[in-house]
Design a protein that fits this description.
Structural class of chain B: mainly alpha
Radius of gyration of chain A: 18 Å
Strand content of chain A: 25-35%
CATH superfamily of the domain at 1-75 and 150-160 and 182-234 in chain A: P-loop containing nucleotide triphosphate hydrolases
Structural class of chain A: alpha/beta
Order of helices and strands of chain A: EEEHEEHEHHHEHEHEEH
Helix content of chain B: over 70%
CATH architecture of the domain at 1-75 and 150-160 and 182-234 in chain A: 3-Layer(aba) Sandwich
Distance between the termini of chain B: 37 Å
Largest interface: A-B, 53 and 44 residues
CATH class of the domain at 1-75 and 150-160 and 182-234 in chain A: Alpha Beta
Radius of gyration of chain B: 20 Å
Number of strands of chain A: 10
Largest sheet of chain B: none
Shape of chain B: globular
Oligomer: heterodimer
CATH topology of the domain at 1-75 and 150-160 and 182-234 in chain A: Rossmann fold
């Protein structure tokens, strides 16, 4: 579903990604973990077609970036630490706006279903600026799944959330990542992603330093795996 | 949060045949609707533009203390200075709203040609500018004792506003990436938009002084040409301007 080969991203003289290779199969949930500044957000922004690769090849759902960016964007739902929502619109108005941008068919029914899914049906007519951070993040997930994308990209979605809101978000992430969707989530919080993902890739120094399936890890061993991977690339 | 079952997956939107032009126009309409709805709630942008515009014409009114004949000659200049300054405020605010909460990324993630985002923002900026102009014109008429309601003048104001917004929306999208965007936009915008402003002032002045249409027509033609050029350039480069 996602194929990345020899990806390089430079900002001026600074090279953030250095020939990164990455593949994700259909229905996989991959947690991309790494220290701050490792290039996780840069990588995800390239996958989301928000940033152009300097070199290398990126294919998502059979479409190549950046040439077929519109087709790629149609198969993507993106949630970042910013909810990408308008505070002066209500929850349903935000979804209606994004639904029109994605030309979602049967939009009103879809909005109802998505608001039910993210547990905000009762707040549908409230302005988003009155929502807590956790509610905004749930609505952001609703925005991301509104057009029923095959691939979901989450960039540190837990940032700024308290424990309860994080737990609630995790439940929602598990549900929306089902139904055969492919998910890539960046995080530097290992405890948070340990129970969510089916595979863990460590991004360090601009490359995938190590990768392991959850089934290959013993419980609570992710931290050791992560530290080993970082030590090997140091 | 009560656990709710996920809605059954629908066939992806890309599997449903839809004319590209329909999706393009729908995206433009969606951005216009979103901007108008958000402004209806907050009234941040229009109120700032309006207060500023009214203050400018008030300041000019007291500062110049013009007699009737002189007023006719300076009216076009005062009007366009007012529109340009108020327009800059609106352009800045309109893009800042998108940038501050990273909503610009939300727009850029939509599977439409990015020029649709440009046109959506430009049309809503134009709508705000026309609303301000529709309020400023009668106030100006009363304060300066000059009737401004001639179809020719209104046509020029429309053409001038289109050109101003066409280039202003593009440059606002560029300036919004910078921390000094409030200062940067006028510095970028005014030199580029000068041909539009000069043509608009000359054409407006011609109508206000009752010149023959043949004398005004070259300026109107110039306005039209600049509008077309600015729209075409923005259409071609907007994608590169908004991308990292």
């Amino acid at each position: 579903m996602i194929e990345v080969h020899k990806l390089v991203k430079r900002f001026g003289m600074k090279t953030v990604l250095r020939g990164l290779d990455f593949e994700v199969g259909e229905g996989e949930f991959v947690a991309l973990i790494g220290p701050n500044g490792a290039g996780k957000t840069t990588f995800l922004r390239i996958l989301a077609s928000l940033s152009r690769p300097t070199l290398g090849e990126v294919r998502i759902a059979g479409h190549r970036l950046p040439d077929q960016a519109a087709a790629v964007r149609r198969s993507l739902g993106v949630v970042s630490h910013q909810p990408l929502l308008y505070g002066d619109l209500t929850a349903e108005e935000n979804l209606r706006f994004y639904g029109r941008m994605y030309a979602v068919a049967g939009l009103e029914r879809r909005i109802d279903a998505v608001l039910e899914t993210v547990g905000l049906a009762s707040r549908r007519r409230d302005l988003v600026r009155t929502f807590s951070r956790g509610m905004q993040q749930r609505l952001a997930i609703g925005r991301a799944i509104l057009h029923d994308p095959a691939v979901l990209l989450f960039d540190e979605p837990h940032t700024g959330l308290d424990q309860d809101a994080c737990d609630m978000l995790d439940g929602l992430l598990r549900r929306v990542s089902g139904q055969g969707r492919t998910v890539v989530m960046t995080s530097h919080d290992l405890a948070r992603v340990e129970d969510l993902a089916s595979r863990f890739d460590v991004l360090a120094r601009g490359v995938i330093a190590a990768s392991t399936a959850r089934s290959a890890l013993k419980r609570s061993n992710l931290l050791d795996f992560y530290r080993r991977a970082l030590a090997e690339t140091a | 949060m009560k656990p709710q079952p996920l809605a059954p997956a629908r066939p992806p939107a890309d599997k449903r045949p839809r004319p590209a032009a329909f999706a393009y126009l729908k995206a433009i309409g969606a951005i216009l609707w979103k901007d108008l709805a958000a402004e209806y709630r907050s009234r941040e942008l229009l109120s700032a533009m309006l207060v500023f515009a009214l203050l400018v014409i008030l300041v000019f009114n007291f500062a110049l203390e013009l007699d009737f004949s002189t007023r006719r000659t300076v009216t076009a200049g005062v009007l366009w200075v007012t529109f340009a300054f108020a327009g800059t405020l609106g352009l800045n605010r309109s893009m800042a709203v998108e940038k501050d909460r990273s909503c610009l990324d939300g727009l850029l993630l939509a599977p439409v040609d990015r020029s649709a985002i440009y046109f959506g923002k430009a049309v809503s900026n134009l709508a705000f500018m026309l609303i301000v102009e529709a309020i400023v014109l009668p106030v100006y008429s009363v304060l300066y004792g000059t009737s401004l309601f001639s179809p020719g003048l209104i046509g020029v104001i429309l053409l001038g506003s289109v050109g101003y917004v066409a280039v202003g929306t593009l440059l606002a999208a560029m300036a919004v990436q910078a921390r000094t965007r409030d200062v940067l936009l006028p510095i970028l915008l005014f030199p580029v938009v000068l041909p539009v402003l000069v043509s608009a002032v000359k054409a407006s002045s011609g109508f206000l002084q009752g010149l023959a249409l043949s004398d005004i027509l070259p300026w109107i033609n110039l306005l039209v040409v600049y509008d077309v050029i600015f729209i075409a350039v923005a259409f071609m480069v907007f994608d590169f301007v908004v991308e990292e």
